[in-house]
Design brief:
2 domains; 5-stranded parallel beta sheet; binds S-adenosylmethionine; tRNA_MeTrfase_TRMD/TRM10; Alpha/beta knot; about 230 residues; Trp Operon Repressor, Chain A; single chain; methyltransferase; elongated; 8 helices
Length: about 230
C-alpha cells in the first residue's frame, strides 16, 4: 500500500518541492509514497475566501479560522491517519516519531501561517503538534517537508542499503561517529589510523567511543538519557 501524505496549505505549489528530487523523489516516482497538496483557500469565507481573522483578546497578527481549517480537514477521507500541525508550540519532532509515522499508512499535515491556527479545531480534530526546533519560521510548509523527508526515507524500499538507517544518529540513543573519505591526507590532515587498520572490531569500538564522546559534548540531554539506560557508564 502506498504511504499517503496529504498537505493542507495556502501554497500547494510548494509541494513536493525538495521532496521531488533524489531519494524521496525517486521513491515518489516508484509509487512508494504519494504526496497531495490541498489548497486551503477554496474553504475560505466570503467573496475573498478569507481563511484568517483577528485574534480574540487583541494583539498583533491574524489567526486561521477553525471553521475553514475544519472544512479542509473534513474534506479528506477519515481513514485514521494522524493529523499533524507543525508549530513552535509542539513537542520536539524526533526520529522515534518519524519511525512511528512511517510504520502507518501516511499522514495529513496542516501548514500554519500568520499567528497560527485557532486552538479549538486542533483539539476537536485530535491534531498532533510538533516543533522542528526552537525558532520561528513564517509557515508550516518547510517543517512539513522536514517531517515528510524524515518519514519517507524510512519506508521499505526507499533507502538502498538496510544498514544506512540502523547506523544513523539517534538509532541507539547516540549521535553518529565522524566520517572520513579519500584522500587519506588532505591539507596536511590525516585520518584516524584505526580506519586504515582493516580490523573491523577495532573500527567498531573506535566509532562507538567517538559516538559517545560527541553525544556527551554536543547533546548532554541525549547523553543523560543514554547513560541512565547503561548503568556501567
Ligand atoms: N505565533 C506562533 C508562535 O509564536 O508560536 C508562530 C507562528 S509562525 C509565524 C506561522 C506557522 O509557521 C506556524 O503556525 C507553524 O505552522 C509554522 N512554524 C513556524 N516555526 C515552526 C517550528 N519551529 N516548528 C514547526 N512549525 C513552525
Amino acid at each position: 500500500m502506498t504511504w499517503q501524505a496529504d498537505i493542507i496549505t495556502l501554497f500547494p505549489e510548494l509541494f513536493p518541492g525538495p521532496l521531488g528530487i533524489s531519494l524521496t523523489g525517486r521513491a515518489l516516482e516508484k509509487g512508494l509514497w504519494a504526496c497531495t497538496a490541498h489548497d486551503l483557500r477554496p474553504h475560505g469565507k466570503g467573496r475573498h475566501h478569507a481563511v484568517d481573522d483577528t485574534p480574540y483578546g487583541g494583539g498583533a497578527g491574524m489567526v486561521m479560522r477553525p471553521d475553514v481549517v475544519a472544512s479542509a480537514l473534513d474534506a479528506l477521507p477519515g481513514d485514521g491517519r494522524p493529523v499533524i500541525y507543525p508549530t513552535p508550540r509542539g513537542r520536539p519532532f524526533s526520529q522515534r516519531d518519524a519511525k512511528r509515522l512511517a510504520a502507518g499508512s501516511g499522514v495529513v499535515i496542516l501548514c500554519g501561517r500568520y499567528e497560527g491556527v485557532d486552538e479549538r479545531v486542533l483539539e476537536a480534530r485530535g491534531v498532533e503538534q510538533f516543533s522542528i526546533g526552537d525558532f520561528v519560521l513564517s509557515g508550516g510548509e518547510i517543517p512539513a517537508c522536514a517531517l515528510l523527508e524524515a518519514c519517507v526515507r524510512l519506508l521499505p524500499g526507499v533507502m538502498g542499503s538496510s544498514d544506512s538507517a540502523t547506523e544513523e544518529s539517534f538509532e541507539n540513543g547516540l549521535l553518529e561517529y565522524p566520517h572520513y573519505t579519500k584522500p587519506a591526507e588532505w591539507e596536511g590532515l590525516s585520518i584516524p589510523s584505526v580506519l586504515l587498520s582493516g580490523n573491523h572490531r577495532d573500527i567498531a569500538a573506535w566509532r562507538h567511543d567517538q559516538s559517545q564522546r560527541i553525544t556527551q559534548s554536543k547533546r548532554p540531554d541525549l547523553w543523560a538519557q543514554y547513560a541512565s539506560r547503561k548503568p556501567g557508564i
